[in-house]
Amino acid sequence: MNLRAPAKVNLYLKVVGKRPDGYHELLTLMMPIRLFDEIVLEKADTGISVRAPGCGCNERNNLAFKAAELFLKETGVRAGVSIRISKRIPPGAGLGGGSSDASSVIMGMNELFKTGLSRTELMKMAGKIGADCPFFFLGRPYLMGGRGDVPLHEVTLEPRSYFIVTPPLEISTAKVYSHLKCPLTRERKSYKIINEVAKKGIAPEQWLENDLEKPAFGICPELERVRSELLDAGALGVIMSGSGSSVLGIFQNEEHLCSGMSRIRRHEGYRYVPTTSLTGGSHGDYRGKGVSSQG
Asked: How deeply is 77 buried, as exposed, middle or buried, from its count of CB atoms within 10 A (0-12, 13-18, 19+)?
């Protein structure tokens, strides 16, 4: 079985409180994009094997392995699975590659072993692997709450073109949160977006906010430079995705994007990905490709 696991970006990320379980309460607008990891699933008699060159972790720590292990345990399927992942989404970049891989493995195994679990059941299972795993079952932009795992409202975005710049570095999410200085209060502004998302055709550049940018920029000042370069290239707005290190520039259309791409300075080792949003489809039915280039 061949699958494509999409990356995501956060267009809006507000930390609105601290939870009793130690996690942070979030309000975040997430969008799947046309940048994919390629996954091949095959039945095996027993055991789980994962081959994922470039993932940056050993087999048992790979979220795809954990997802397969959990699926077999909770469904009682007496078999094994072989997983091969061709990484296109850079790890540790705030693009959700590992979580997307895990979610795609769970969705794929549900089909492969014909277990017939509902999307709700699969999302609940995936939530045990990672906070943003349930999002990848939705297949479209969504406002998420809780730890980032609770769907609040589907979002319709005005069409835009996007340009993702990823420096060759990984930022620890825990470290970014440890440097978070903003007061964790429930501001009225945080909830205005809940009413606004019910409208059709939200302009994404009007909602860009990420509470994690300031601490991440303090840890990695080069991210501030990337932001400035995208704005100088004509982006309508710029936002860091998740806890970094990817920075997203928003452009009006493909022509505007091509103009911006020609103006931005390229740096050695950086990844530059022009892309668009995904709206619909399942893990096996995504169409289109993000085009990656190196600095």
From this structure: middle
132 is catalytic: yes
Please pick, among 8, 14, 66, 87, the residue that the annotation labels catalytic. Answer: 8
Note the pLDDT tens digit of each residue in 48-106: 999 999 887 899 999 999 999 999 999 999 999 999 999 999 998 999 999 999 999 99
- CA 217 from centre of chain: 19
Helix axes 63-75, 97-112, angle to 10 degrees: 30
209-210 vs 2-18, strand pairing mode: parallel
State which residues form the domain around 163: 2-294
Q: In what order do the strands lie in the sheet with 161-166?
A: 237-240, 247-251, 161-166, 271-275, 293-294
Q: Which residue has the tokens 């996007």?
A: 162
Exactly one of 37, 101, 132, 211 is catalytic; which is it? Answer: 132
Phi (first) and psi of residue 21, to 5 degrees: -80, 5
Is-contact 238 227, C-beta < 8 A? yes
Alpha helices (runs of H) in 76-172, residue ranges in sequence order: 97-112, 119-126
Cβ(154)–Cβ(187) under 8 Å? no
Q: Are strands 161-166 and 150-154 parallel, antiparallel or unpaired?
A: unpaired
- Least Cα distance to 277 among 138, 120, 173 occurs for 138
Annotated active-site residue 114? The verdict is no
We report the CATH number of the domain holding residue 99 as 3.30.230.10
The count of structural domains within the chain is 1
With 0.85 as the threshold, say if the pTM is over it: yes
The answer to whether 38 touches 97, Cβ cutoff 8 Å, is no
- 3-state secondary structure at position 182: coil
